[in-house]
Amino acid sequence: MSLAVQLPGLELKNPVMPASGCFGFGKEYSQFYDLDKLGAIIVKAATGEARYGNPTPRVAETESGMLNAIGLQNPGVETIVKEELPFLRPFHTPVIANVAGSTVEEYVYVAKTLNKSDDISALELNISCPNVKEGGVQFGTDPELAKEVTYKVKEASDYPVYVKLSPNVSNITAMAKAVADAGADGLSMINTLTGMQINLKQRKPIIANQTGGLSGPAIKPIAIRMIYEVKQALDIPIIGMGGIMTAEDVLEFLLAGANAVAVGTANFQNPLACPEIIQQLPETLKKYGFRSVEEAIGKGHEG
Amino acid sequence: MSLAVQLPGLELKNPVMPASGCFGFGKEYSQFYDLDKLGAIIVKAATGEARYGNPTPRVAETESGMLNAIGLQNPGVETIVKEELPFLRPFHTPVIANVAGSTVEEYVYVAKTLNKSDDISALELNISCPNVKEGGVQFGTDPELAKEVTYKVKEASDYPVYVKLSPNVSNITAMAKAVADAGADGLSMINTLTGMQINLKQRKPIIANQTGGLSGPAIKPIAIRMIYEVKQALDIPIIGMGGIMTAEDVLEFLLAGANAVAVGTANFQNPLACPEIIQQLPETLKKYGFRSVEEAIGKGHEG
Amino acid sequence: MISKQMLNIESHIKIAEDTFEVVLPLPDEIELKPGQFVHIALKGHMLRRPVSVADVDKEANTFTIIFKIFGEGTLALSKYRAGESLDVILPCGSFYPIENINVNHALIVGGGIGVPPLYYLGKQLKEKGVKVTSVLGFQSGSQVFYEDKFRALGDTFVATNDGSYGHKGFVTDIIKDLNKPIDYYFSCGPTPMLQAVTKQLEKEKGYISLEERMGCGVGTCYACVIPLRENPKQSKKICKDGPVFYANEVILS
Amino acid sequence: MISKQMLNIESHIKIAEDTFEVVLPLPDEIELKPGQFVHIALKGHMLRRPVSVADVDKEANTFTIIFKIFGEGTLALSKYRAGESLDVILPCGSFYPIENINVNHALIVGGGIGVPPLYYLGKQLKEKGVKVTSVLGFQSGSQVFYEDKFRALGDTFVATNDGSYGHKGFVTDIIKDLNKPIDYYFSCGPTPMLQAVTKQLEKEKGYISLEERMGCGVGTCYACVIPLRENPKQSKKICKDGPVFYANEVILS
Ligand SMILES: Cc1cc2nc3c(=O)[nH]c(=O)nc-3n(C[C@H](O)[C@H](O)[C@H](O)COP(=O)(O)OP(=O)(O)OC[C@H]3O[C@@H](n4cnc5c(N)ncnc54)[C@H](O)[C@@H]3O)c2cc1C
Ligand SMILES: Cc1cc2nc3c(=O)[nH]c(=O)nc-3n(C[C@H](O)[C@H](O)[C@H](O)COP(=O)(O)OP(=O)(O)OC[C@H]3O[C@@H](n4cnc5c(N)ncnc54)[C@H](O)[C@@H]3O)c2cc1C
Ligand SMILES: Cc1cc2nc3c(=O)[nH]c(=O)nc-3n(C[C@H](O)[C@H](O)[C@H](O)COP(=O)(O)O)c2cc1C
Ligand SMILES: Cc1cc2nc3c(=O)[nH]c(=O)nc-3n(C[C@H](O)[C@H](O)[C@H](O)COP(=O)(O)O)c2cc1C
Ligand code: FES
Ligand code: FES
Fold first, then answer.
1. Which atom of ligand 3 is nearest to the CA of D222?
2. Is the residue at D135 inside a domain?
3. C161 exposed, middle or buried (CB, 10 Å; 0-12, 13-18, 19+)?
4. Which atom of ligand 6 lies nearest, measured to the CA of D215?
5. C31: in domain
6. CB C48, CB B268: distance < 8 Å
7. What count of CB pairs under 8 Å joins A to B?
8. Atom 37 of ligand 2 has which residue's CA nearest to it?
9. Which CATH class is domain B5-301?
10. Is the domain of D114 the same as that of D201?
11. pTM value?
12. Taking Cα atoms as reference points, which of A156, A146, A157 lies closest to residue A187?
């Protein structure tokens, strides 16, 4: 059974990749399995300079989900290009770099710096991180700003650009259209929903940053809905994510209209989540009457 | 221990009430327990005329949540006033009527009709139902429309008006401010998040309406965050809801800033959810060092 | 009176492919009538699962449910064991109104997991002296259950879609050839079967039992409505007004 | 090499108020050193729970963890029984570098659920011929565990906050009166205790073991960082670079 999918700049042997921020730069999980098994790898966000991120606690557990407010901690794009990405070079798996920033200039600087690297195949433009005061979320909720930053980053980069959308909006299709108009090669959706948990003993939010991004199976219905809506309105490749735990979840995203998927939170519960899902995928596709991944994409729109 | 709370137009013996749409008009659950135990009762939405609602299936189960697209089925406000509300008259529990509509005129008509009833104590203005094409959700995502409908309904009604906000927005505080400016006596938050689930066998959305509203513990972190943000920005009473299953959940909502809470989906899993939560509440408050409900309200903001 | 109960499973056995029979104690003062269902909570699941009452043993003070693994919830239910306790709302819904109708020869038509409630119905009909003819449809032979028990009630015919047991085909193929005068039919099964049966028997009086995805299961949430033939803008609730309806009362779709 | 394993619980017993000792098989080719932890998945929970290695029995090929019920996850863990299997990532994190340091007299300072990893450490120190003095703090007498086992390693002092057992007060009250020359201290416990201890012993060389809420537990998610004293804009990961740090390497807050 063919699991391969073709996306702008990406020839994927299968549609499953770890999501940004949930896989570091690959080293740790490479102790658990051969990264060649992955369809691609989306690495942790890069900003212009090194960032410390938010104070701890940075994570909390919720019903069927988790909150995180890492705050884009990363060693800065230069260091990432020089010290982190080369580790992934020997693997036969395309790497997608996640581009973050506080200003259009910073986004452009990160994209330009990444342009010098041969170790990546595409950019994921993160305009949706809810966990930093000036971390891009305003770009993710205002179509005009989203358009501008997408356009500038496209201009600055030779790599295809997948814009990662925030679900914290009333009209996801308007956001998708705005970035598509600005030249996005694809979309990546969804990032986390802003949430909070309060510690009853301490009488304050558990996460030091107060709010954090909600991920995991709790948000899957929201991700599916948004992908379905965007697919209905627009013809643009989508990397889908939000709560994927199993091969059946992957199929649900494909039916909704995702061309490939990313797995985030599931890695924490099961470091073997990605390879196990990939292994289950052919059987699952077969069970529901599909002969390839390509065949399933968007099929939830025909019933 | 005092569980009492005072809200505009509502003297509650305890802060727990069933949420609109999850308790019908009270008859069914009155078979399970004495409705006098409840702090209040929010009944099913009323529209100008009887509505059939959406085709079935109307519900689906998700991880720690459910989707519903009932589509505001109800017998119409006249029938509700005449045939449903009188049943609740003998109980010593205030009733809150949920006002829905497709146009400002319809909202006003419903409010005016309810004004004739003595069986209620307040209105909950539902500008956030995501499940009907013309069901009010546009009022819930556009601050100007929200302001207008709130103002008009306030004008039409002698009862205090709690405006029920939609979580499907980027900026919940802006929505809260808009309706507070228009004279809302309180807020009710949150309604459901729009979601979807796809049936892998049938290759189409499970809910006939395609999308449905996500409720249950999955959305609790989003509800807590929104209430916390609004409480920080505004001084207005809040009825909090979204995923409450236990007395500890109630306390979390109180700490976030809710003055009272509503329990929705939990009733379906456990018809005794409300009385059991109310029974547990004194012990739970005590465990975390509170001597009354009033004392806990907003206490999550001081840490 | 409807209530929520914790019931200790008395037995839990497999009776056919993916099909299980569970016996539960009948709580005091609860009466379960044929056609009614119970609404079962399962750990890790937000919503309860409706399952019909398949039999009641008044001597032993127990009742029986029969279910087939369909998805996650019924899979979870299949893993419970005797001795464990189950959170059940009961009794739910309407019942076959056999005490108010005059019936001499009843035709029972069941399909798949629509068969269980009809067994309890058939038993009560027989006790009342009614002649019972049963037509049961299953997907294949491995899924057939309770055939002997139905035979003890009267003539019984089994059809399987794949012909691996009994007549090959649908229940309607058997009904077509039944040359017996019946005065009421009672049917439960998948909607396409009910559509075919009610069409085929449209001149007869009959009662059918319906399924729909449920929220509350007790009538508060409007999840489970079915439009009325008389006025399709009006509806009834399957969980409260149903699951049993007079055959031509509702629009099956 | 770190890996994910399904381990069958060999024993699961309560050893003090809300405190449990669980013995698990040590998988082949896995070495667990004092200070390291294992990361445990629990049904119904998104995130794993980190628990320190409290002992290793090389003969029996088993290792021990000790935990106290704190919230939902540890409550769930307390309900597992011998024979059930547990999904564990191991070995995680850094260890007390006792093979690379020259130590004659070690002071062990543990508080509450910070005590367990220090037992395995003390045992290894003693095996190496190091003199061990242990100071253990608990909330109250009902929560004291492993006192005898620590006594078998050397002088042992117990303090309880409420004075219901041993010295009334904090571990620092005991340390204050210890007139013994030590060359290294090793401490694990709640942050306020670690702050007090590192302050009190700031002239001594020491290692501490830290706790933080974790996501991955293996170093990918940046959930568990701690700022460095040298440059507070830089940090290390408790799950991977820690949980054991040189006492003055990090900023405790
Ligand atoms: C009144 C009534 C009586 C029933 N009696 C029986 C019986 O005696 N034996 C038996 O095996 N089955 C019976 N069913 C069907 C049974 O309820 C479903 O097979 C079961 O709910 C499927 O749950 P699941 O978790 O396995 O499937 P999933 O598809 O995983 O369930 C997801 C959701 O859909 C709902 N759902 C899926 N299929 C159905 C369905 N056909 N009817 C209602 N809800 C559904 C579930 O309740 C759940 O909320 C009855 C249904 C109704 C309405
Ligand atoms: C390296 C390390 C070693 C540990 N060793 C032990 C040990 O040997 N024995 C023992 O009893 N406890 C130990 N702990 C603490 C233990 O992990 C927590 O008590 C446990 O995670 C609490 O989970 P819960 O579900 O009961 O609490 P909840 O508060 O319900 O947990 C909610 C979330 O917060 C996290 N959390 C809460 N408290 C802590 C904490 N103190 N540290 C880390 N995460 C926390 C949980 O992991 C979970 O993700 C250790 C912690 C770390 C970091
Ligand atoms: C701990 C953590 C860190 C994350 N960091 C990033 C990040 O740096 N950049 C980004 O675009 N998304 C980040 N995300 C979002 C995920 O990539 C993903 O969009 C989201 O978690 C939904 O998928 P999931 O439910 O499978 O986790 C992070 C998520 C988590 C849980
Ligand atoms: C089946 C169902 C029907 C609902 N109908 C209404 C309604 O008519 N009016 C309304 O304002 N909210 C309605 N809601 C939303 C709930 O009142 C509540 O805001 C939401 O479900 C979140 O709370 P919960 O997680 O406790 O269910 C409905 C929710 C459900 C699940
Ligand atoms: S399931 Fe709620 S009304 Fe029928
Ligand atoms: S818990 Fe993920 S880096 Fe430490």
1. 1
2. yes
3. middle
4. 1
5. yes
6. yes
7. 138
8. D213
9. alpha beta
10. yes
11. 0.97
12. A146
